[in-house]
Each structure stands twice: as C-alpha cells, then as structure tokens.
Write a structure and sequence with these properties.
Number of strands: 0
Order of helices and strands: HHHHHHHH
Helix content: 40-55%
Distance between the termini: 59 Å
Radius of gyration: 29 Å
Strand content: under 5%
C-alpha cells in the first residue's frame, strides 16, 4: 500500500508529528492518507470542504485594541449593583494584598514539609495563627494553605477534635460553596 499525506494537512497542521510519523500511523490504521482517514469516519453530509470566508487575521496589538474598544462599551460593576459573592459585595482590597499573594512562597497548594527550605513561610503562618488567637481569645487557630472549602473542613475537623463533639455549627454567613463541603 502506497502512503501519502495530504499536502494541505502536513503543511498547515498544528499536530507535532513528522511526515514519517503520520505515514506510520496511517499504515497501522489502514488508510492511504489523512483525507481518506477522515472520509471513512466523517459522513459527507457533515463535511465542509470549501474555504472559510474569514476576515484577514489581526496582530496581537490589533486584537488588544479591538477588545479594549469592545470592552469600553460594557458597564462595569462599579457602575451597577452586583450580587455576586454570596454576601461579600463591594469591598475594598488593599493594594498590598496582590503583592503578598503573588509571592511564590505563598502561591502553592502544598504544605511546606522541608522546614529548612520554607522557614519564612512557616514563620509567617505561625505569626498569623498567633495573632488570630490573640485577637479572638481562642486557644488554637488554623492557617490553611488550601482553598476556602478545605479551610472550612479543616476548621471543622480541628474543632471536633479539640472539643470531642460530633456536630459543628456553621454560620449562614459562610459562603454557600464552602458550607457545601
């Protein structure tokens, strides 16, 4: 069987396979070329063989300008009433928050097991937990390194462990997605 690859496919494809790779794969499945493979699998009524009538492509800068112009036609949440947030509506986030949360040592879902490699993070967690205990008068606090739902479940488990109780009271003010955990 003679193998050939459609010139249209091999020159415009974004599949990172060489012509030799494609020829070998086509041989394994028993097709002479990519077009034959698609013709066997896709009914003629579902095929579109004409050229698409699309406008000329835009550069990144042109796309950015176009999208900014389109976005300017929208009204922002600063102008409208918005009820997204399950009770946490218009609130101020200090600029320092972005700086702190984007630090690589805080952007992780992993517990810092190697104390020598993450002493600063462990120290900041300890300081935070100590401050929360001082502010609330609680004996213990937890600083989860995970998402809000995980933090709620960790807090519930910790409360149950400390008190020996099997039920945990969760405020309606807690985000519904977190209460569902």
């Amino acid at each position: 069987m003679s193998m050939s690859i459609s010139s249209k496919q091999s020159k415009t494809s974004y599949i990172p396979a060489t012509d030799d790779d494609l020829t070998e794969m086509l041989g394994v499945i028993g097709a002479d070329n990519v077009d034959e493979l698609f013709n066997k699998q896709i009914p003629e009524s579902a095929r579109f063989d004409a050229e698409l009538n699309l406008p000329k492509g835009l550069s990144e800068q042109e796309v950015t300008t176009l999208l900014e112009k389109m976005a300017a036609e929208n009204r922002s949440l600063k102008e409208l009433v918005c009820f997204l947030g399950a009770g946490i509506y218009d609130h101020y986030v200090p600029a320092v928050v972005e700086s702190v949360i984007s630090k690589p040592e805080f952007v992780t879902t992993y517990t810092p097991y190697q104390a020598e490699a993450s002493q600063g993070l462990l120290q900041s967690i300890y300081e935070y937990q100590s401050l929360v205990c001082d502010l609330t008068g609680m004996e213990v606090s937890n600083a989860s390194l995970y998402d809000g739902g995980t933090a709620v479940s960790e807090a519930a488990l910790m409360a149950s462990s400390v008190t020996g109780r099997t039920k945990v009271l969760v405020s309606q003010a807690v985000h519904p997605n977190y209460r569902a955990v």
